[in-house]
Amino acid sequence: MKVGAIVTRIIRQMVRDKRSLALLLFAPLLILTLTWLVLDQESSDLKIATIDVPDSIITTLNDQQINVIDIDKPKSALKNSEIDAIIETAGNSLRITIDDSEPTNSQAIMMKIQQALVSKANVQQVEINHLYGLELSTTFDYVGPVLIGYFAFFFVFLVGGISFLREKSQGTMERLFATPIKSWEIVAGYIIGFGLFAIIQSFIVVLFAVYALGVPLEGSFWNVVLITLLLALAALTLGTLLSTFAKNEFQMMQFIPVVVVPQAFFSGLFNLENAPLWVEWIGNFMPMYYGAEALKEIMIKGNSIDAVVLEIAALIGFSLVFFVLNLGTLAGYRK
Amino acid sequence: MDSFITMNEVSQSFNGEDVLTSINLEINEGEIYGLLGPSGSGKTTLVKTIVGTLKPSSGTVYVQDVEMPSLKKLQDIGYMAQADALYSELTAKENLAFFAKLYGIPRHSISNRIDEVLSQVDLLESKNKLADKFSGGMKRRLSLAIALLHKPKILILDEPTVGIDPILRNKVWNHFYEMKQQGISIIITTHVMDEAEKCDQLALLRDGKIMASGSPSKLKKQTNTSSIEQSFLYYGGVQT
């Protein structure tokens, strides 16, 4: 079968082209590890000064492994970022001043101080509920699931798009058009061929992220692989589609800042809750938005596949639309 | 009509620029038809239009009474493009095997057929070498082997002998004559004048128009010249 011929050829080419293969399979692991090294830090040595605070509270804070230090001029120390927060007594309540120039610090301090004070019954009643009862202690735990999807998307887009483009630049596409192969067979061959590598990639990336980097996985491993794979397919069909609009590899690279990077902004890495509605609305047109949403549902919230049916449908829909558009553009070339 | 390929008032223009103007052409079964012209004269566009990878802007192309472009008819056409369309990561054999499958050659005969065409172009000993490692001439020959693979009734060759040494070129031409004996029609583009002399019929192409056509001897007789090069100059002079 002609589709089979293309699939075999793509597998042969990829296996011979060790660098592209490595880019597809191991570059996501490298970047995930780097992000993990940078983001997976617990804010452990927080320094807090106290002014007129009862000893009992200081003891409680110390119990919570908060570093309460004695310092001469706490207020100026706070300004100089020598300490991270001041706790002082103001009338009947406690006033906490936090150096919020370090966003991760302030979150951590609020959490820790709250935890410390909750255990003290005589201080005002504070109630904290954790909806999912998770122990997400670092930024990486929150963004890990999104990054798994994003890097899979990025590298499949790049490798798939460029090899489809090379077909054009080395003249073989024209040569294919002079054989009795149908356009859909060419595109289908590409999707199956690279789809196989995308399956391997999804499997390796998810396995590595969960078991080596400790990204939380509350739901099913296989559901995560499924979502990552669907994202990769959307990236593949989008990459091959856009490559027909690029004349060379350099022009293909130009699609990265225009098409791939913006997807990161709508993937949940950045909080869009306060953004205008139309900004959120843009996300609806991006595969990454649905992929990231589904990954968070499964990995963080531990939901089953039923909870992400809409996202799965959207990802399949994107792939189908890109596939059909690609057939259209190929038919345009094959005059 | 025994005319195998017929082009009727074919014009081809891209973005308002005329590349071919009112081409009329009749090619008979079992002849070697040469398209002679300098680069930029429209030779490649002309053969692409016959193959059907380009649809004419106006006019019609028929190959054995089938209007081109036709996916089905491609099964009867062997095409060798000007650029060596090879997969550099694959060996000669793997390149051939890929195209063999696209042409639907039965699986069990693929291997034999590959050896056959490779020996025809003198590449049998490089069968398992990566196309990447091939010299320019070897790549041309491998492209030619791909065009021969499915035993087409029509061979369309765009500058097939560029970069091939005279001895091998002679061999390749002998092979063309052999195929002609078998009733295969061959269309060759060239800018080499002495190669044009070897064709049964010639069309002289310049600026997207056919200046003259006929057998090489007829063209020389008409212009009262002793070589195709001189006839070309003659027609070119008349034209301007």
UniProtKB/TrEMBL annotation, chain A:
Its main location: membrane. One of its GO terms (cellular component) is plasma membrane. It is found in: Cell membrane. It is a multi-pass membrane protein. One of its GO terms (molecular function) is ABC-type transporter activity. PROSITE patterns: ABC_TM2 (PS51012). Coiled coil: none annotated. Residues 107-333 form the ABC transmembrane type-2 domain. Keywords: Cell membrane, Membrane, Transmembrane, Transmembrane helix, Transport. The chain crosses the membrane at residues 21-39, 142-165, 186-214, 220-243, 312-333. Belongs to the ABC-2 integral membrane protein family. This is ABC transporter permease subunit. It comes from Aquibacillus halophilus.
Automatic annotation (TrEMBL), chain B:
Coiled coil: none annotated. GO terms for molecular function: ATP binding; ATP hydrolysis activity. It comes from Aquibacillus halophilus. This is ATP-binding cassette domain-containing protein. Keywords: ATP-binding, Nucleotide-binding. SUPFAM superfamilies: P-loop containing nucleoside triphosphate hydrolases. Transmembrane segments: none annotated. It comes from the Bacteria. Pfam families: ABC_tran. Residues 5-232 form the ABC transporter domain.
